[in-house]
Amino acid sequence: MVEIWEWPDITFTGYGGGIGGVLGGGGGLTDRGQMFQFTLWWTVVCFGVVFGIAGLIAAIGSLREGRALMAFSLFVFVFGFGLVTALVSGSIVGFLIGSVYEIGGFIMALWIPFAWALIQTLVVVISSYAEIGLNSL
């Protein structure tokens, strides 16, 4: 029997007892399309929060100088850039982990796409610092 999960479902259960058997029973994502969708949407949400906050900070800085149009433009640009980045990154990672789970015959716990979205978000935040970014390699 295949279970159908809707997107913001996030329960800490997985096939074979969750994390080390502590978090409970069976169930999870079995279809690559669902794995892709969950990863993509969680990535869009996480990136949206981070880039939305960054856009608001940039907009507030411009508003203090009396540039309302510039503030709005900065917010839209930063937030839009974050969403495009999330769509590309979430699509690639969602397809890859969905393929790995499907080829291996595994059932993906519902928290895995959320964890990958957080990992992607943290990588983007860490690489945004010039001192420790990819430019220093």
Write the SSE topology.
Blueprint: H1 32-64, H2 68-104, H3 111-127
Helix pairs in contact: 1-2, 1-3, 2-3
Can you tell me about this structure?
Helices cover 64% and strands 0% of the residues. By secondary structure, it is mainly α.
How do the SSEs run, as a string of H and E? HHH
Terminal residue distance: 49 Å
Count of distinct strands: 0
What best-fitting shape do the alpha-carbon axes yield?
elongated
**Helix residue percentage:** 55-70%
Q: What is the gyration radius calculated from CA atoms?
A: 18 Å
Tally of individual helices? 3
β-sheet strand percentage:
under 5%
Major sheet description: none
> Mean pLDDT score, rounded?
80
- Structural class comes to mainly alpha
Low-confidence stretches: 14-25
What does this entry show, briefly?
The protein is mainly alpha-helical and 137 residues long.
Key phrases:
single chain, 137 residues, 3 helices, mainly alpha, 64% helix
